[in-house]
TrEMBL record:
InterPro entries: Glyco_trans_1
GO molecular function, one term: glycosyltransferase activity
Source organism superkingdom: Bacteria
Keyword Flavoprotein found: no
Designated name of the protein: Glycosyltransferase family 4 protein
Enzyme Commission number, as recorded: 2.4.-.-
Membrane spanning residue stretches: none
Coiled-coil portions: none
Keyword line: Glycosyltransferase, Transferase
Location of the Glycosyl transferase family domain: 173-307
Pfam families: Glycos_transf_1
C-alpha cells in the first residue's frame, strides 16, 4: 500500500488500537512499518478470550474532520463502535468485515441489534469474500443496496512463497532433522491450542492412521489436554509449541500437507500462506475464506468438523494413501490459486482503484 496508494493519489495513515494482542507472541520489527502509522494509548481490558480496546485519542482524531474517508476495521471493540458512531456523516465511512455466519455467536437479541446499528452507519463495505457479504446482509438486509469492495487478506509473499521455495532446497536435510523419511507425509497444523481451532476433534480422526506425521505449531490452554490425547492413543503427532517466523518457514518447506480444522474462523491467514508455499490443504468448511483458498479435489479437501466426522475420517484416510508426488501435484495448484487470487500488487492496485471510484460516486 505504501507504494501503490500514493501512485493513485491516496494519502493514508494506519491507526492501531494496541501494539499487539495480549495473547500473541509475535515479534514485529520496527522496519516493517513502511507507512504512516500511530499506535494509540488506551485501555485494553480482557473478558475471557475477548480483548477490548478503548482509545480516546482515536475518537478525538475522528472529530477533527481533517480527512475524506475512514475505514473501520470491524465491530469487535469499543474503539470500533465509537469510530462508527462518531464519524461525521459528512465523511465517507467504510466498514471492513471479516466475520462470517459460522464465526459469530450473537445472531439475535441486543447483539444483533447493535451490529445492525453499526452496519447502517457505513456508506460502503470492505469484505474478504462472499461469506462476509452474506454476514452483512443477514444483519442488515438493506445493506445489499450499498457498495462492496473486496480486499482478501494478504500475506508477505516474499516470505511464504519466495523464501519458503528457497529453504525447500534444504528439504532433505530438514526432514532428516525431524526424523522423517521420504515416504512419510509431513502435515502441519499452525494454530493456537484453543477449542475453536478444532484440534481435539481432528486428533480423534487420526486414530489408526499411518504413513503420516503431524506437527502442531502453536501454544495455548489446551496444550496438556492435546498431549494427553496424543499419548493415550499413540498418535503420530508432535507438539512443536509457538514458533517465530524463521522456524515456521522451515516447517512450510518440509511439509506435504497443510491442515486447519477450525470450528470457527473468520478469515484466517494460514491457508493463504500454505497456498503461497505450494502446499495442498485440508481445511474446515467453516473457515470464512474457504471458497478463496480451495478448489475441492484440485488443491485439497474440506469437511465440516462438527457435522461431518465420517467424511473427515474418510478424507484423512484417502490422503494418507497418496504418494508425496501426488500431494506435490496438488500443491502446485495451490500456488496457482495464490498467484491468481492473492498476488499482493495486483490486489492492492485493484483495491486502490475501487476506493477512488467509491469516493467519486
Amino acid at each position: 500500500m505504501q507504494e501503490i496508494f500514493p501512485e493513485n493519489g491516496i494519502d493514508f495513515t494506519v491507526h492501531y488500537m494496541a501494539h499487539i494482542e495480549p495473547n500473541r507472541k509475535w515479534i514485529i520489527p520496527e522496519d516493517s512499518y513502511k507507512y504512516k502509522y500511530k499506535i494509540h494509548k488506551g485501555l485494553h481490558p480482557a473478558f475471557g478470550r475477548f480483548y477490548a480496546h478503548f482509545n480516546p485519542s482515536i475518537i478525538t482524531l475522528l472529530l477533527k474532520k481533517d480527512y475524506d474517508f475512514v475505514i473501520i476495521g470491524g465491530m469487535g471493540s469499543p474503539s470500533h463502535w465509537l469510530s462508527s458512531l462518531l464519524t461525521p456523516k459528512s465523511k465517507f465511512q467504510i466498514m471492513s468485515i471479516e466475520s462470517n455466519l459460522h464465526s459469530t455467536n450473537r445472531k439475535d437479541g441486543i447483539g444483533a441489534w447493535f451490529k445492525r446499528l453499526l452496519l447502517k452507519r457505513a456508506n460502503a463495505f470492505q469484505v474478504t469474500g462472499k461469506p462476509q457479504i452474506e454476514y452483512i446482509n443477514y444483519f442488515d438486509p438493506k445493506s445489499k443496496n450499498k457498495k462492496f469492495i473486496k480486499l482478501p487478506n494478504l500475506i508477505d509473499e516474499k516470505i511464504f512463497r519466495d523464501q519458503v521455495k528457497k529453504v525447500s532446497a534444504n528439504r532433505h536435510s530438514l526432514r532428516n532433522d525431524l526424523k522423517l523419511d521420504e515416504k512419510t507425509q509431513a502435515w502441519i497444523l499452525p494454530a493456537q491450542l484453543i477449542e475453536l481451532k478444532g484440534i481435539m476433534p481432528f486428533l480423534k480422526l487420526l486414530r489408526g492412521i499411518q504413513n503420516i506425521k503431524v506437527f502442531i505449531l502453536g501454544d495455548g490452554i489446551l496444550k496438556k489436554t492435546i498431549q494427553e490425547e496424543i499419548d493415550t492413543y499413540n498418535l503420530p503427532v508432535v507438539l512443536e509449541g509457538y514458533l517465530q517466523q524463521d522456524r515456521m518457514i522451515d516447517f512450510y518447506a518440509i511439509a506435504d500437507l497443510f491442515v486447519l480444522p477450525s470450528l470457527k474462523d473468520s478469515s484466517p491467514l494460514t491457508p493463504i500462506e500454505a497456498c503461497a508455499a505450494s502446499l495442498p490443504i485440508l481445511v474446515s468448511s467453516r473457515i470464512g475464506n474457504v471458497e478463496d483458498v480451495l478448489t475441492e479435489n484440485l488443491n485439497g479437501w474440506k469437511y465440516d468438523p462438527i457435522d461431518e466426522e465420517i467424511k473427515g475420517k474418510e478424507i484423512i484416510s484417502e490422503i494418507a494413501r497418496l504418494t508425496l508426488s501426488d500431494l506435490k501435484t496438488k500443491g502446485k495448484k495451490s500456488l496457482e490459486i495464490y498467484n491468481l487470487k492473492f498476488d499482493t500488487k495486483k490486489r492492492i492496485q485493484e483495491y486502490a482503484v475501487s476506493l477512488k471510484n467509491l469516493l467519486k460516486n
